[in-house]
Write a structure and sequence with these properties.
heterodimer, A: 354 residues, alpha+beta, Dna Ligase, domain 1, D-amino Acid Aminotransferase, Chain A, domain 1, 2 domains, 5-stranded antiparallel sheet, 11 helices, 13 strands, B: 588 residues, alpha/beta, Glucose Oxidase, domain 1, 3 domains, 8-stranded mixed sheet, 6-stranded mixed sheet, 14 strands, 47% helix
Chain lengths: 354, 588
């Protein structure tokens, strides 16, 4: 068993199986020509082995066995606490810890930066599936630096499989934790000029003729967590024309805090607050990537993107995550496919009654 | 059933003193026109803005030929999927209208299919259809205008009156045959635009800037104003009341004679027009030129001439800019929909037609019947020229056929005149709506022209005193804002009271109010939507306009200082006329 897999070593066909949904998709996207961060993944098998050899599996099963599917909040929370305490008390096997440390060292070498800050991302098997998105349930740690902190974050990602939220989400859907072993990606932290999300269809109306990009200065956490109102742009899919760009007043920024060694939220500098965060060239870079991803998968997607601080016109945008669109994915059934006087009159002219 | 306005006080079988029609008296297509019955309370009725004074017995013919015949026939012909047109009731002399709803789901679906087939055909051929219908109306008009009624016998006048009514009825068949499909197409385009994220306030602009017969009239009036100024006649106009102007000008002679000669040329082309829609009680400008002279007088009070060409160029530039700006925000797929929809609505342009057709139909259609009635009055020795319009159609037919002498109606006419005056007095306090107020209506004419949209329905449902109202809202019909003195008018006769820079507040406007838009600072209407007359003309003239305010004529008092925000659809009352000395009250 190889506990650690490099993104550029995995084949697209095996990547999701080895590295979970999130990291597996990065490999698939890379194969489709999309620019993604460099890094490796602590594989699904490593997680399984860790749970098995340390006896965690038994302790997890013991904690979960008495829980009925409709267990109350308190009982779920108690079970979750018990399991997480067990995870925290269980050290990594020294061989596994050594492999992870070695891989981190190699990543710093590849990126030519000592104590390279990395993003440590949960990548559970089956997360982001079209019927259960687990959106925002598992942890991501941005700006982790140094081998010990990386190990700590890997373990914290594993543990996040058993937060009360994750547990009740699975209970409600009848999903076993065995069905979604947790891989953890360790990726270079892209030095972000601006970050955000993008949708290959309009996320609210479901219109497929346009893409939507939302973004703000700095890292994407404030956007993803809804801590800031991002700039909003819509781009025509067939001609890549920017249809609108609404510049928001952005009060909060996620930035890398050197002292704390992680990405934290702070007040947006005044001069950036009402400045447009993404220029047309960057929008085109983002939407080109989104289009490639949607074409590759053959269904609408949303992504998290980062524009590098050193971004030059013509450079690609970096995609750090992608998943199938799970909300409002349906094309509105009566979306206009051309002008039809009678159809539009029927729809609008008679008080909504045809 | 909480929002029911009782009809009890208007329930009667008698239309006017001494007239209870027999069944089948009135022509109708689906449902006849009549007085209120108690069961009418289950339906929704709104006070029609077209006749603020009320209608005389002969005037009520419009309800029969226009609504009960014209709208119902057209609604069945297109057909309107959920409606069979408009029907109406009289309360005293005032008209309340309602839609006739189709309730059977299968039938609505069936009618929808028919409409799907018929509407595109109509739109593709609109130019030809409107040209043919216009020619038809024009042929009738020239025929009826060519008669010398003074040489006719009483029976001959009766024959003429019958023909004049056929022209009237045919005109309204055409009117609604055109109006429903044109409006339905426009509303469809409007809905598609809103769906594509286009600012609703921009949409009407896409179709503005096309000259109409009504604008042509206004332009000619301004030409006369310019001529009066150049001839140094300002002082004559400013020193005399509009009613005395013709005499004063004739007395002055010289350039004034020349001006009067130009004025008569103007009247020959544009003077066959009444100061209100479709009302036999109203004289044309030819019969009484006071309104036209009054307009020139108020125009002269403005410092500069209204530059129509510049205004039109500006309107066109604004249209093109609005189209470009809206298109830029659309995807290429949406642009295809938008471009085709705009092309369709430009070729069959509802806002344009809505103004243009008034010249051919609404403002002159009742004149031949009026001429016949006036001549009959003279022939039978009536006390006043317009006494015969206080007879109902079958009564007048009896007179012209020699079955009854006019003398037998003489005292009844006096009663009916008093009845008319009594109800004219009551107009201001008539309920805006009667019966059961619904959450929505389906007839596009009621929604878009009468403004019976959600906002209006909510406004009329609201109870409580209007005295304290400081801030009103309505449909943002024409952008911009202005502050000034409110002139609350009940009908167009009073337009001369409006001074340049004042704000017009009324139930609704009709084409004969159009010239006033060159002098007012803003306009507020109880009714109307984005397509009502005030909205269209407000945009053409760049006058901030708010429609569908619901209770503006009750909440705003003549002389109040108000601010109209046509961009956001709000009206703020700053100072009550009666308390003008008190500090300004700022609305919240």
């Amino acid at each position: 068993m190889k506990p650690v897999h490099w993104l550029d070593d995995m084949q697209p066909g095996e990547a999701v199986g080895l590295g979970g949904a999130k990291i597996g998709r990065l490999v698939e996207m890379m194969a489709a020509g999309v620019h993604v961060p460099r890094g490796f993944v602590v594989g699904v098998d490593a997680y399984r082995a860790h749970c098995q050899v340390t006896g965690l599996d038994e302790r997890i099963d013991a904690a979960l066995a008495p829980l009925p599917p409709d267990a109350g909040e308190d009982r779920v929370a108690a079970a979750a606490d018990e399991i997480r305490a067990a995870f925290e008390a269980t050290a990594l096997d020294s061989e596994l810890a050594g492999e992870i440390g070695k891989a981190y060292q190699e990543l710093t070498d590849r990126c030519q930066q000592s104590d390279l800050p990395v993003a440590v991302r949960s990548s559970a098997t089956g997360e982001d599936s079209s019927d259960a998105s687990f959106a925002g349930i598992f942890e991501t740690y941005l700006g982790v630096s140094g081998p010990d902190a990386v190990l700590e974050s890997v373990r914290a990602c594993w543990t996040s499989l058993f937060t009360p939220r994750a547990l009740s989400y699975r209970l409600q859907r009848g999903i076993s934790h065995h069905a979604m072993p947790m891989a953890v990606g360790v990726l270079e932290l892209i030095q972000a000029r601006a970050s955000g999300v993008a949708f290959s269809v309009h996320p609210i109306t479901g219109k497929r003729d346009r893409m939507v990009v939302e973004g703000s200065w700095g890292w994407g956490e404030a956007v993803v967590q809804g801590l800031v109102t991002p700039d909003h742009a819509e781009i025509g899919k067939s001609d890549a024309r920017v249809l609108r760009y609404d510049t928001a007043r952005k009060e909060t920024i996620s930035e890398f805090d050197n002292a704390a060694g992680r990405v934290t939220e702070s007040a947006m500098p005044e001069e950036l607050r009402e400045a447009r965060a993404v220029d047309d060239d960057q929008l085109h870079a983002i939407t080109a990537a989104v289009r490639s991803i949607e074409e590759h998968y053959g269904h609408p997607v949303d992504v998290e993107w980062v524009i590098h601080q050193g971004h030059q016109p013509g450079d690609p945008a970096c995609i750090v995550q992608s998943r199938p669109v799970t909300v409002a994915a349906q094309e509105p059934e009566d979306a206009p496919t051309g002008w039809n006087s009678a159809a539009f009159a029927g729809k609008y002219a008679f008080g909504g009654k045809k | 059933m909480s929002n029911v306005v009782p009809v009890d006080e208007f329930v009667t079988d008698e239309w006017y003193p001494g007239f209870k029609p027999e069944y089948g008296y009135t022509p109708w297509s689906v449902e006849p026109f009549r007085t209120f019955r108690k069961e009418d309370e289950e339906r929704f009725w709104f006070l029609d803005f077209h006749w603020p004074r009320g209608l005389t017995p002969m005037g009520l013919i419009w309800n029969e030929d226009g609504y009960s015949w014209g709208t119902q026939l057209a609604a069945e012909a297109l057909p309107l999927p959920p409606g069979r047109g408009i029907t109406q009731r009289i309360a005293g002399t005032h008209t309340y209208a309602s839609s006739i709803d189709v309730t059977d789901e299968w039938e609505i679906g069936h009618r929808h299919e028919l409409m799907q087939r018929n509407l595109p055909r109509f739109l593709e051929n609109f130019d030809d259809i409107w040209a043919e219908r216009r020619n038809e109306v024009e042929a009738w008009w020239q025929h009826l205008k060519g008669f010398d009624l003074r040489s006719q016998s009483l029976r001959g006048l009766g024959d003429y009156l019958v023909k004049a009514r056929r022209f009237h009825r045919r005109s309204f068949e055409i009117h609604f045959e055109i109006m429903y499909p044109l409006l339905a197409n426009y509303v469809g385009f409007y809905g598609a635009c809103v769906d594509m994220g286009i600012d609703p306030n921009e949409i009407a602009k896409f179709l503005q800037g096309y000259d109409t017969k009504i604008m042509e009239t206004d332009r000619a009036l301004w030409d006369l104003t310019r001529q009066a100024r150049q001839s140094g006649l300002d002082s004559v106009f400013l020193q005399h009341d509009a009613t005395q102007l013709r005499g004063a000008l004739a007395e002055r002679g010289g350039p004034a004679d020349e001006w009067l000669s130009s004025f008569d040329d103007f009247l020959e082309v544009y003077g066959y027009r009444t100061e209100g829609s479709c009302d036999i009680a109203l004289p044309s400008w030819i019969e009484d030129p006071t309104p036209a002279l009054g307009m020139v007088k108020t125009f002269l009070q403005k410092d500069d001439n209204h530059d129509f060409d510049a205004a039109l160029q500006e309107t066109i530039a604004e249209r093109d800019a609005a189209i470009d700006s809206a298109r830029a925000k659309l995807t290429s797929e949406e642009q295809e929909v938008f471009d085709a929809g705009l092309a369709s609505c430009t070729a069959a342009n509802f806002p344009w037609w809505q103004d243009d057709h008034n010249y051919y139909i609404d403002l002159r259609v009742s004149l031949p019947m009026r001429w016949a009635c006036l001549q009959i009055s003279e022939a039978v020795g009536a006390d006043r020229p317009d006494d015969t319009i206080y007879l109902f159609w079958p009564e007048l037919m009896q007179v012209v056929n020699g079955e009854k002498s006019y003398n037998s109606f003489r005292s009844l006419v006096e009663d009916r005149r008093q009845y008319f005056d009594y109800w004219a007095e009551r107009r201001a306090s008539m309920p805006k709506v009667l019966g059961t107020v619904p959450d929505a209506v389906t007839d596009p004419i009621l929604i878009e022209i009468f403004g019976l949209n959600d906002h209006f329905l909510r406004a009329v449902q609201a109870t409580g005193s209007t005295e304290d109202v400081k801030s009103l809202t309505g449909v943002a019909a024409s952008k911009g804002s202005a502050r000034g003195i409110a002139r609350v008018l009940t009908n167009a006769d009073e337009l001369h009271r409006v001074q340049p820079g004042e704000i017009l507040v009324c139930e609704s406007t009709s084409p004969n109010w159009t010239p006033a838009f060159a002098k007012i600072a803003a306009c507020v209407c109880d009714g109307g939507g984005t397509l009502s007359h005030a909205a269209i003309v407000g945009r053409e003239y760049g006058v901030p306009t708010v429609t569908a305010v619901g209770l503006a004529t009750l909440a705003i008092q003549d002389g109040d200082e108000i601010e109209v925000d046509g961009t956001n659809g709000t009206v703020t009352v700053y100072r009550r006329a009666a308390n003008a000395a008190e500090p300004v009250e700022v609305s919240t």
